Amino acid sequence: MEPSAKWAEIAAQAIFHTLVASLFVEALVRSWRVTEPRQRMALRLVALGYPLVVVPAFLSLFPFRLEEPFHDGPALLVARRWGEVRVLGVPLFDAWLAAFAGLGALLFLMDLLPLLRGRRRPRPVAAEPDPDSAAALAQVPELAAALGIAPPPVVFLDRDQPVLFCTGVRRHAVVVSRGAIRLLDAEELRAALAHELAHLATHDPGVSWAVMAARALMWFNPAFQVLSRAVARDAEWRADEAAAAVCGDRLALASGLIKLHRATSSAGALPVRRTLPLAGALAEPLARVRSLDIEVRCRRLLDGPPRPLPYLKARVTIAAASLTALLFFVV
Hints:
Blueprint: H1 3-31, H2 37-61, H3 68-72, E1 86-87, E2 90-91, H4 92-120, H5 131-137, H6 140-146, E3 154-157, E4 164-167, E5 173-177, H7 178-183, H8 186-201, H9 204-217, H10 222-247, H11 250-267, H12 279-302, H13 312-327
Parallel strand pairs: 3-5
Antiparallel strand pairs: 1-2, 4-5
Helix pairs in contact: 1-2, 1-10, 2-10, 2-13, 4-10, 8-10, 8-11, 9-10, 10-12, 11-12
């Protein structure tokens, strides 16, 4: 087999294994009615591990899976055989792989380019908070202690635009603007600060960079890109639950999420930069998706704390073993 054909077959395996694993996990999430965000993340991380860990392990430990005797014998599905079918003179395997790789690259760039643009912007300049803002931020050490972390530095921005986020891989910080403090009432601000501190308690800024690096490695894999976004959404839900548990006011957090989303959406309603093909056409649907995500998070908060699924570790172990055994015969 030529090197290019071998790499194409490996890429096809990574894509198809991720697709099967993600569909399998999503079916389990729904059939088991998994609503606790930590448990949802655990299941989805199993699927993310297949192209990063299981596929390379198969290739290094069982190289005979790429050879014809295995393809003609125990293999259940051989992607390379699709090349024998032609559509408009193009082998179906090549067309399938190119289409999936293009979709994966598009999904990756849609998140990478805004991130790179943000990194090029000048760092926000910290200002001395006014007395009212300082009093509102005095609760950060208490919230941090409740979440089991050291109080991070608070970077105060003297601007009217609402800004509230956490940052830092090794040096954590919470960034908040005067506009965010004035926008939210006392209970909403407390819940929003607890949400950002909950992200720091689970080292989400560092994890997000690790996930982005994995997405760069799997740029051609659309199932991996979609699943990574689902894990990021679960991380937001996990922070919501931690903040609600610390503050005891789920309604205040939901109200704060809506206020911040509406304020930042209206403030950012600028003409779309043409950084990607079809960027203008995608802008409105993507904005609707973000609004829907906020709505779902608020509904989950108002529904009350989720109930953990019993025996999850045993279920995950059995599911992972079954899926590994199945995908061993898919090349």
